[in-house]
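Open question from group meeting: does this chain pack into something compact, or does most of it stay loose? Before anyone orders reagents, we agreed to write out a predicted structure and look at it together. Recording both the input and the output here so the notebook holds the full record.
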Amino acid sequence: MALRLNGATAGYVELNAPDSAASNTLTLPNGNGTSGQYLQTNGSGGLSWQTVTDTTTNLTRATSVATTSGTSIAFHNIPASARRISLLFDQVSLDAATEMRIQLGTGTQASPTWITTNYIGARGYSFYNNTASSDGSETEIGFRFNYSTAAIGYNGIVTLENLTGNTWVESGVIAGGSGSNFSIFSSGGVKDAGATVTQVRVTSLSGTANFDNGQMTIMYEVA
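Structure tokens returned:
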């Protein structure tokens, strides 16, 4: 059976029930809603106007920063809505035989709070002659992803992904060196920042070695 509503001057709108219809009532919402909204059911016959949620991910790529001086390279003003942060390394090296670490930061650029304890993580590495090893720790000062070799430029990407709340997971693939010093590193880790992450920095393990070559770029995706 159909319900037909005739137009004031011509035409009609018709609603048809299925051939074998169970008893069912649909209750329309009060009002017309707003432009772009849609009708949503609650599964019990109640209809309501709802707004389409924009799930588009916006990707921002910052200008590359030269890594030719200083003991750390920091990226500030990361949006609170960031869900993925990627660090790209292009021939980045230190002037002393020490490792690099990635640290999360909270607060503002003028008054940052860098998190320097209890990162859980591990790295695995393979040298040119196929020897491999791995190590990890629950008391690191930051995410570990490379090896302690001076004047070797590292290339690759390390990604920080917001798991839930203020917890971030790290994964990366980095390669560098030449000849017998060429190696590939894979890494993974996790850290609860305890607050919204607004900045990230890469620093030397000793805190005294200087960057002496290459450039670094940060990209972040916001929901």
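Observations to bring back to the group:
The mean pLDDT is 89.
The first strand starts at residue 2 and ends at 6.
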